[in-house]
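Our preliminary data section would be incomplete without showing what the modeling component actually yields. Below, a chain of 594 amino acids is followed by its predicted structure, encoded as C-alpha cells that our downstream tools consume directly.
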Amino acid sequence: MVERQKQMSRDKVSRLVNWGHWFAFFNGILAMIVGTRYLDTIGYPDTIIGWGYLAISTIGHFSFLAFMVYLVLLFPISTLLPYSKILRGYAAIIATASLCILLYDTIVYDDYGMHLSPFAFDLAWADLGTLLHGTSYIATPIAILAIELTAANFLWKRIDRIQKKHWGPKVVVFVGLCFVSSHIIHIWADAKDITQITRFDDTYPLSYPATARTFIARHGLDGEKETHQPADLVTLHYPSSPLQCHAETKQNVLLITIDSLRYDMVTPDTMPFLSEYARQNQLFTKHLSGGNQFASGMFSLLYGLQGSYQDAVDFSVTSPLLTQTFKQAGYQMGLFISQSDMKEVTPEAMMQDFSPTVADDTDSNARADIQLTEAFEQWRHGQQGPWFALLDLKSPENYDTPIGFLGVETIKAPAGMKPAERVLFNQYRQSLHFIDKLLANALDKLPKDTLVVITGIKGKVFTSNSSDARQDLSPSNVHVPLIIHWPEGKPANIQYRTTHAGLVPTLMTQVLGCTNPATDYSAGRQLLHPDEQKWNYVGDNKVFAIYQPDEITVINRHGQYYIYDVDYQRQLPKKLSAPELIQVMRESRRLYKD
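Predicted structure:
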C-alpha cells in the first residue's frame, strides 16, 4: 500500500512536471509574440539572411527564457507542493507577471533605447505617467491572466493525450537546435562583420549572443578582434526636415583641433601665443568636449550630435551635414590629419567630404604635426575659391616634441599628483608649448578675414594607462578650450557652458545661412547665446556622463550610475535626477522617430 502511494505520488509529480514543460513552451510562444514589439523600435530585417537569423534567434531565446522562469519559479513548487489547482493558479500568476514585465520592457526600450536595469527602472518609474497611457495598463494584465488560466487548465486536461503523441522530444530538439544555431551563426556574423545579423545583438532582453572574440578566447586561440557593437538600423531622420541654406558671403574657415588639450593649460607660461590669441578673440571658458576619446569628441564636433548616435549604421555612409553643406556651397574641403587619428575616425563617412592629407606619425607625432601644418599652408595658397580646412594636431596625446626642441622651464606640478603624474605633467607642457609655436606660425600667415576655430578634441588625464583614460569622464578629460576668431569680431569672454555640439548650428547659421531650427540636425544650440538646457551629454553609447550645474552623473553600459560633485572629487550619496535624464534618453532616440 505504501509503495503504491509512493508510485501514485511520483506519477502525480511527473504529470505536473510534464504539464509545466508544456506550459513553459506555451509562454515561450506568447513571449515571442510580445517580442515583436522590439522590432517596431529597431526595424525589421531587409534580407533573407536577416529574417532567417531573427527567426531562429527569437525561437531559441524566448523559449530559453520561458524555461528558465519555469525552472526557477515553478519546478521547485511542483515537487514541494504537488497540487494541480494550486500550481496552475500560481503558474498563471507568475506567467502573467513575467509577460507584463516583458511588455513594460518593450515600452522602456522604445522610449529610451535600453532594457530594464536599475538605471532604466529609476527613469521609467519617474516617467510612469508618460509611458503608460489610458487604462491599458489595467486591462492588459487582466487579459493576460485570463489567457494564462485558460491555457493552464486546457493543457492540464489534455496532458495525457499530448504525452501519448510523443511531441515533447521533437520540440526540445527543435528549440535546442534554434538556440545553439543562433549562437553559431552569430559567431560567424561577428567574425565577418555581417551587420544584417549583428545589429540585433541588443534587441532582446537578457540576450548575450556568442561572438568571435569569446569563441576565440574560450578555445585558447590567438586574436585581438574587437567585438562589434550593435548598430541601430531604424531609418535615421538626419536632418529631420530639409535644410534651407543660402550663404550670402563665403568666408574661409579654418578648424584646428588639438587632441588632448586641457582648458587649464592655455596659460602664458605654457602656451603664450594661444593665451594671447584667446584674449583677443572669443574665448568660451566653460566648454565641454562631446567625449573623452578622439572618435566621440570629433563626432560631436562635426555631426553636432551626442555620442549615443555614433554607432548608427546610417553614419557609415552619411557624412556630417556641416561638411556636406560647405561642399554644396562650393567650398574646397581640406583635411590634414595624422595616420593614427585617421584610423580612429568613427563612423566611416565622417571625413568623406574632405580631400585628405595624411601624415605618417609612426615614429613621431610631432614630426607629423609639422608636416601637416606645412601641407595646410601649401594647400591654402593654391586655393582660388572659398575653402574649409580641418587641421588636426596630435602631439599632446602622446606628450611628444621634436628632437632637439627647447621647451619651457619645468614648474611645480599641482598638489596631489603622484611622482609619475608630475613627470607627465611637465612633459605635457613641453608638448603644448611646441603646439603653441606651430599655431603661432600658422595663424600669423592667415588672411585676417579667415574665420578660425581652435579647440581640443578632448582633455587629458595624466596616466599611462589607456584603459583608465577611456573610462575617465572628469572635467580634466573633457573640459577643453574653444576659441573663435570672427573677422571684425570683438574680444569676448563667454562664461556660460557650451559644448562641441554647438559648433555645427553656429557655423550652419552664421556662415552657411541655414534658417532651420538647430533641432532639425543637431543636439546642440548656437554658441553665441546661452542654452536653457540644464544638462550636457559627454561620451559615447557605452560609457557617458551627464553634466549638470551641481553634479556629474556617470553611467556605464550596464546601467550602473555614480553621481559626483562638480569638481569630480567625491561621490554623492543621492539618487538620479530623473527629469533631466529622461530628456537625455529621449534625445538619444529623437532622430529615429518617424
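The first strand starts at residue 253 and ends at 258. The two ends are 70 Å apart (CA to CA). Preliminary results of this kind motivate Aim 1 of the renewal.
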